């Protein structure tokens, strides 16, 4: 590749041909403010539409200011990033944006993470020089998962890029012209009426508060303080390696025991682990996998733990709806068991038992509201809060996880194996299923390093492997994360149904560790590696690493369900999916 030589602020720099002025400035550690630009939105996709013009610089012998994020370098180019002309232009652009912004920062869900607010502070803007009409749009909270307030949209188009290029869902697009231009749905219809999967990657991408999750925190506080209700909480695997970074822990550090203590301090009656129901999922899904492999029917089996991905197949691949596992997700399995088995144990009516989920995901809010998960009008899971929302609850209550002692989950829905921990990372569900499938087929456990199915690990978007699960029995498997990659794998399945016997799909790139409700990465992809390593370390430290060895799961089947795949298990733990 050829190199290009240029000068920025009187400093010479050499960069590969095809680089932008912004790339070259970064090499010199020269900061150029950006807003619409985002280097990593997932799956290697960047966003540089040059729509905001915050990054304009002055290039000698060029009449107009140039957007640094989208202007290719040229041999001999001379650039000034902090000339008076460039600084005045940036300030004017920023003030114009702010003049059309609601300016209700104190009440905005993105308050402490708003990139527009941070830029205004960096520029020292304390008043707006422009006045006039402002755009006003109705707030769309139709989905029960994601809220859109287009009055705050700054047309950076990050959400549009992640929706179309990373996730390939195609729900969002530029709409309108001129002053009224915003990113919205086709014909501005409500989000619930579109093909949106509610994965929440648009929420993570939005630099302001134009797209946020719908919060149920007030309802959770009300339930906790209602003496007529018994309120229990479950925590997803990926939460324990992300929540700590908001309280000063090294990113990726598992803070499981402190998380339990913190939740007790908030007032929950019992604190349980979604890893328990992840083990339960493996008992049902592993049994289903073995049965399908033996019969050769309805292959490949597709995992069904991720509601965003399930929404995706319902909208885009209705002809393949017969192959996903019929198992509910661990969240919904927990709710079903809590409202039946556990409610009976403690003598509480299902309607008086409030189940709260702490999830890394926005789609879990939509999933909990699906009508099929509310038998007799009583929801299995009443409220879902994200990792970010839980952090706010902790701060509101004056709970600092760094000062909490370690505690353990309650029984009988709190024990879990290491296999349950790795559900939070791409490849983990399939690995957990393969561990137990091996036992079901051979009558013995894997030993030593054979427990670790390294071929399905890692953050690559698509992984293929051939796994021996019994003498003479090898399964062709695939793991993918990110809905754009899911589309590629499902197209492979359409073209050749015999290519795989088992496929794991997660909607978010990297899996739940990168869910739409996790603490923001702020462009630091290394945080995903740390969260992934944190979950694998949790797996390795566990005495029990196989779902079928979880004693509380064994007791559940003995006392209540009978056996995996029983009629009662199917009634409580399985579901059907529908074309949308």
Summarize the structure.
Helix content is 34%, strand content 14%. The protein has 580 residues and is of the alpha/beta class.
Fold topology:
Layout: E1 3-8, E2 11-16, H1 21-27, E3 56-59, E4 66-67, E5 78-80, H2 84-99, H3 115-122, E6 146-148, H4 158-166, E7 173-175, E8 182-184, H5 201-205, E9 211-213, H6 217-224, E10 230-235, H7 256-266, E11 270-273, H8 274-295, E12 301-302, H9 307-316, H10 330-346, E13 353-359, H11 363-368, E14 383-386, H12 387-396, H13 418-421, H14 428-442, E15 462-470, E16 473-481, H15 483-495, E17 502-506, H16 526-541, H17 551-561, H18 567-573
Parallel strand pairs: 1-5, 10-11, 10-13, 12-17, 13-14, 16-17
Antiparallel strand pairs: 1-2, 3-4, 3-5, 6-9, 7-8, 15-16
Helix pairs in contact: 8-10, 8-14
Could you characterize what this model shows?
Helix content is 34%, strand content 14%. With 580 residues, the chain is an alpha/beta fold. It has three domains: 3-97, Ubiquitin-like (UB roll) (Roll), CATH 3.10.20; 105-119 and 128-213, Alpha-Beta Plaits (2-Layer Sandwich); 218-573, Rossmann fold (3-Layer(aba) Sandwich). The strands form five sheets. It has a five-stranded mixed beta sheet with strand order 2-1-5-3-4, sandwiched between helices. Strands 11-10-13-14 form a four-stranded parallel beta sheet, with helices on both faces. It has a four-stranded mixed beta sheet with strand order 12-17-16-15. Strand 16 (473-481), helix 15 and strand 17 (502-506) form a beta-alpha-beta unit. Helix 8 (274-295) packs across helix 10 (330-346). The chain is globular and about 80 Å long.
